[in-house]
């Protein structure tokens, strides 16, 4: 029935103030106001319609994206939206596009690695979109191994230029989003060569296309790399291939904050660490963590609402059947994901703070926290994107058969999201970076250098190697100190075990390769500890609103105990908890699911997603699923005609043949 809220009774069961929870989710009252206003603006604009994406051809899809991005830019300028509002608008338009890379990587790369003069020259053009840029680092032959990039930038002292060249097929730039068909400029990464000497990989601004007719400039070959996973999905993006044939650019187009090349061709290293060349990746990894909570919460919102609508079995005396959300198995799959969405939100907030802090320190030439910022952004990007990709797929299964329909919104969400496990650093490669950081931390423990920040707990390693979990009753697992100690002990013991095993190898690098699978597990344990501890820290804040803090406490405990249950092997093997304590944790978890159950719908309402943004018949706010699913099916282009195209050519002759055979 139109206009009826089928989930009203669910909403009436909520034991907390949903409006206040919306503020917590958004980060502040101001952020909620902006987000709410902009999401409604996008939802009410027919130009941002997105329900037809899966039936468009690649060319139509791409042109449609160009139209939407142009319309979005028009609205941003007409309404004079602030940077924050404009970024929310792009978010709610919900279509991967070249603008993600322009605003998300090209501009940050210039900001982070350019000199003052370079910022003055390039940023105004980029901010007004008078140039459109992308981030061209990855090549056909190398993505993870940035030091293995082959594109060269050779300094020519005669003309005061760099000659950008792709010496091999594998040196072709491959993957950059926005490169294939749109970008006029790129920040490219190439090996700096002066007088035959290789100074490693640096960033350069290169114009790719003419500002008059958009044709590639001389010496440049550029195009799209082809269709990607899923229909619609990430195919709105023109991931590209790019080759240079001795393309000349002025010397002042090398990004020179980290290192400079003088007019005489002298290489000068600033007093900033070389790793700042990788700075844009640190920035984007941090935004990807925040984005993980958005993608996961969206899938969870769909699966939770649908689980309350869907009924199967359990009818007594002709009464209504059981809502599938009431099955404990459904709860044990769904509620940890709901809790993870909140956990990732808060760790994302914290990571943003860490990133801002490290940026301010870098400006004051304090580089001391850079290794930690790198390890945290790399590790949390890996942890949250892997969990989110798996979580979206789990939500699809939680919705049964209907979850497989594009109209559920889940297949497209999954297809758009999964590359996050690969881009901006393959998740395993990133965990190995965390592992290196942990091994370094452990190796320095006796040296008097006290571990700080997220590894401060390693400073109590002696105590953590000995401690015994104090849990005697299931309720003891609700104490934050108990949870923290278990996670700290597990992480410390796994890292120390790896460090000890490494000493069995004469060559530490060989040892690192041999033990890399164990090392990634230690890295995961450390990153999970960060997420759990930041959730617990969040709960120490003053959180207003009836019942809001209590709900968050339930979610925090679900998150931690679910992880404990999932990684029981780690906790038992390292002797952090006993089998009896593991079973008490499980009892507590079941009880927490029961406490979360009446609040589940309200907890996903707190994400404040419009039906337009969710793009899911199953996740509709009003729960009016069946009539809309039915309606949606008839909109499929296959149903445009009752008898399909191809009947005369293929079906009819086959049927006739069968008839003839039968008569014989
Ligand atoms: C809310 C809305 C948000 C929306 C968000 C949207 C944003 C837009 C998203 C758009 C979508 C897709 C974009 C995708 C873009 C890309 O994929 S760009 C390409 C990304 N590529 C990678 O990530 C490559 C991964 N590889 C690397 O990062 C490095 O090569 C690697 C770190 C793996 C290894 O580098 P090496 O140089 O070989 O380093 P090591 O020898 O291992 O280490 C040397 C030391 O440097 C330290 N290090 C390494 N990286 C960093 C860093 N980034 N920052 C600081 N420090 C770093 C490392 O720890 C070593 O330190 P040590 O010597 O041990 O002290
Ligand atoms: C949708 C999408 C958008 C992208 N956008 C951009 C962009 O805008 N700009 C850009 O420059 N790039 C972009 N990329 C490229 C992306 O950053 C790389 O694909 C990514 O960094 C992974 O590198 P790779 O492809 O070389 O993977 P590989 O490193 O070749 O990975 C292959 C396998 O090898 C494993 N492996 C690799 N090294 C190690 C190791 N040391 N130890 C153990 N295992 C290892 C990996 O775990 C993986 O299983 C994009 C990629 C995708 C999919």
From TrEMBL:
Keyword hit for ATP-binding: no
SUPFAM superfamilies linked to this entry: Acyl-CoA dehydrogenase C-terminal domain-like, Acyl-CoA dehydrogenase NM domain-like
Record's keyword terms, sorted: FAD, Fatty acid metabolism, Flavoprotein, Lipid metabolism, Oxidoreductase, Peroxisome
Entry keyword Lipid metabolism: yes
Domain Acyl-CoA oxidase C-terminal: 480-656
Subcellular location: Peroxisome
InterPro entries, per the entry: ACOX_C_alpha1, Acyl-CoA_ox_N, Acyl-CoA_Oxase/DH_mid-dom_sf, Acyl-CoA_oxidase, Acyl-CoA_oxidase_C, AcylCo_DH-like_C, AcylCoA_DH/ox_N_sf, AcylCoA_DH/oxidase_NM_dom_sf
Cofactor: FAD
One GO MF term attached to the UniProt entry: FAD binding
Main location as per UniProt: other
Residues engaged in binding FAD: 138, 177
Origin: domain of life: Eukaryota
GO terms for cellular component: peroxisome
Transmembrane stretches, start-end: none
UniProt record similarity statement: Belongs to the acyl-CoA oxidase family.
Protein name: Acyl-coenzyme A oxidase
Organism phylogeny: Eukaryota, Viridiplantae, Streptophyta, Embryophyta, Tracheophyta
């Amino acid at each position: 029935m139109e206009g009826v809220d089928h989930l009203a009774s669910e909403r009436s069961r909520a034991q907390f103030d949903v409006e206040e929870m919306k503020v917590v989710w958004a980060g502040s009252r101001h952020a909620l106001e902006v987000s709410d206003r902009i999401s409604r603006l996008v939802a009410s604009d027919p130009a941002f319609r997105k329900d037809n994406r899966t039936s468009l051809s690649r060319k139509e899809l791409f042109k449609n994206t160009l139209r939407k991005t142009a319309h979005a830019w028009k609205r941003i300028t007409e309404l004079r939206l602030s940077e924050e509002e404009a970024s929310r608008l792009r978010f709610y338009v919900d279509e991967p596009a070249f603008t993600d890379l322009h605003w998300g990587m090209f501009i940050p790369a210039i900001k982070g690695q350019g000199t003052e003069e370079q910022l003055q020259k390039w940023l105004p053009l980029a901010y007004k979109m008078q140039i459109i840029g992308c981030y061209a680092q990855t090549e056909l032959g190398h993505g993870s191994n940035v030091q293995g990039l082959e594109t060269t930038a050779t300094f020519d002292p005669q003309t005061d230029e760099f000659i950008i060249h792709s010496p091999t097929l594998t040196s072709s730039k491959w993957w950059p989003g926005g490169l294939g068909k749109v970008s006029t400029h790129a920040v490219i990464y190439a090996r700096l060569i002066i007088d035959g000497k290789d100074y490693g990989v640096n960033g350069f601004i290169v114009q790719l296309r003419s500002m008059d007719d958009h044709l590639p400039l001389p010496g440049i070959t550029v195009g799209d790399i082809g269709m990607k996973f899923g229909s619609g999905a990430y195919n709105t993006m023109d991931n590209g291939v790019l080759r240079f044939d001795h393309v000349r650019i002025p010397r002042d187009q090398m990004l020179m904050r980290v290192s400079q090349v003088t007019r005489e061709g002298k290489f000068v290293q600033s007093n900033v660490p070389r790793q700042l060349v990788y700075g844009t990746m640190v920035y984007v990894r941090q935004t990807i963590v925040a984005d993980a909570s958005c993608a996961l919460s969206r899938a969870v919102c769909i699966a939770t609402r649908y689980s309350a609508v869907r009924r199967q079995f359990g009818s007594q005396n002709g009464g209504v059947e059981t809502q599938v959300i009431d099955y404990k198995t459904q709860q044990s799959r769904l509620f940890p994901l709901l809790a993870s969405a909140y956990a990732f939100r808060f760790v994302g907030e914290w990571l943003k703070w860490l990133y801002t802090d490290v940026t301010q320190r870098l400006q004051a030439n304090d580089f001391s926290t850079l290794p930690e910022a790198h390890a945290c952004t790399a590790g949390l990007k890996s942890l949250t994107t892997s969990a989110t990709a798996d979580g979206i797929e789990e939500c699809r299964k939680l919705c049964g058969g209907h979850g497989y329909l594009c109209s559920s919104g889940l297949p497209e969400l999954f297809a758009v999201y999964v590359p996050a496990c690969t881009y901006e650093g393959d998740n395993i490669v990133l965990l190995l970076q965390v592992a290196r950081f942990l091994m370094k931390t452990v190796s320095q423990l006796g040296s008097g250098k006290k571990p700080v920040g997220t590894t401060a707990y390693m400073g109590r390693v002696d105590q953590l190697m000995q401690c015994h979990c104090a849990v005697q009753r299931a309720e003891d697992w609700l104490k934050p100190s108990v949870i923290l100690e278990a996670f700290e002990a597990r992480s410390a013991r796994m890292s120390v075990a790896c460090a000890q095993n490494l000493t069995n190898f004469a060559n530490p690098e060989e040892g690192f390769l041999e033990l890399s699978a164990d090392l990634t597990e230690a890295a995961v344990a450390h990153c999970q500890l960060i997420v759990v501890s930041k959730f617990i820290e969040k709960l120490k804040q003053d959180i207003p609103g009836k019942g809001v803090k209590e709900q968050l406490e339930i979610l925090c405990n679900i998150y931690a105990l679910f992880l404990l249950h999932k990684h029981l092997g780690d906790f038992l093997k390292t002797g952090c908890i006993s089998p009896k304590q593991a079973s008490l944790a499980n009892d507590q978890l079941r009880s927490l699911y029961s406490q979360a159950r009446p609040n589940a719908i309200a907890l996903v309402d707190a994400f404040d997603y419009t039906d337009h943004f969710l793009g899911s018949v199953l996740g509709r706010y009003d729960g009016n699923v069946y009539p809309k699913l039915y309606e949606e099916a008839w909109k499929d282009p296959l149903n445009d005609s009752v008898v399909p195209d191809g009947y005369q050519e293929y079906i009819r002759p086959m049927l006739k043949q069968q008839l003839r055979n039968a008569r014989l």
